[in-house]
Each structure stands twice: as C-alpha cells, then as structure tokens.
# Entry
Amino acid sequence: MIHASRRTLMLLLALGAAVSPAAARAETLLRLSEQAQVQARPDTLGASLRIEVESATAADAQARVNAQTAKAIAVARQAAHVVATTGSYNVWHATQPTARWHAVQTVDLRGTDGPAMLALVGELQDQGMAVQQLGWRLSPQAARKALSEATREALKALRARADEAAGILGLRFLEFREVRLDGNPPAPRPMLAMAMSRDAKAAPVAETEDITIEANVGADAVLVPAQP
# Structure
C-alpha cells in the first residue's frame, strides 16, 4: 500500500512536470495601455492680491503694510464662503532714484461663490490692493471625483481592448496582471490680471471653462486558448 502511494505520487509529479510547461506556453501575455479624459467644471475661484508701501524707514513701511493686511483680512473674513490667508512678505531697501524702504505682503483668497468673490476683490482693489492672479480651479474634492471618473473610463476601455484582442487572436481573456494607474492631477488655471492694477476702476471679471482631467492606465492581460 505504501509502495502504491509512492508510485501514485511520483506519477502525479511527473504529470505535473509535463503539463506545467505546456500550460505556461499556452498563456499569451499582452501589454496594454489606455487613456481617458473627462471634463470638469471648476468650482473654486482663487485670487492673489498684493499690498506694497514705501517709506523712509523700514519700521514705518512694515507698520503700514501690516495695518493694510490686517484690514484686508478683516474685510475678507466678513464675506461668506471665502477663505483668506496671507502669502509672501518681503522688505527691501532701494537706493535709486532715492533711498526708500519697500514692504510687500500678499493676501490669497479662495471661495466657491463667484459673484461674492469678485465683489470682494473689487472692494480690496478700492482699498489700494493690486490683483496679481485671478482664476477658477477645481477644489481637491472635485479634482479627486473627476480623476476617479477618468480612471474608471480608462479601465473600462482597457478591458474592452483586452477582449477585442483576444477575439482577434482566437483566444480568451483570463485576467490582468500588474495593473498600473497614472492620474494627471489638474493644475490651477490662473488668469494673469495685467489690467487689474490699483488704479483700475472696472469690476474684476473671471470667466470659467471646463478643465480636462486625464487618467492613464496600463496592465498585462493574460490570454489563454478559447474553450472548445
């Protein structure tokens, strides 16, 4: 009985050794990649404004720019659905044409209510601030949602290509191996506000347009002989 079991085990091992290479050769590995794009409507308006003062002393220049910045932040925080933060701060001494100290502070705003944001930017312009950038962009939540949708479409296209290739080759799709995902995060689309200086009298305008979100996927598709 023991000898019979050993013979059976040896026979199974021999069959496995004979079948495995054939099974491996029966697999066809197909490397595929796909790309999908979706259009997403920007939902956040961002603005960067600049306060600059000059004075005979560094202390006075900084005190004045600090006061204007505090006033701007206070005004911004009264607006609904607007987030206001301070940005870069610089102080330097210029000697031409005359010796003067300069102090600069930026204030960054973002909000989802376009008309309210534009009204706020216009009010801050009236206070002497200059608009450096103004433009629509996707919030992180909207960007993730759009990227997820693009990835889903790319994966569906990848599977369709695998099935199509298998049919053309007279094979059938078995599975994917080493699936690779590569999303393209959206970049902000600022509109340079060249005409929006502190002397501008017209209200600021920021038109919006859809942003293209792209997803790239790749995978190794395993194809096997079609079942009879």
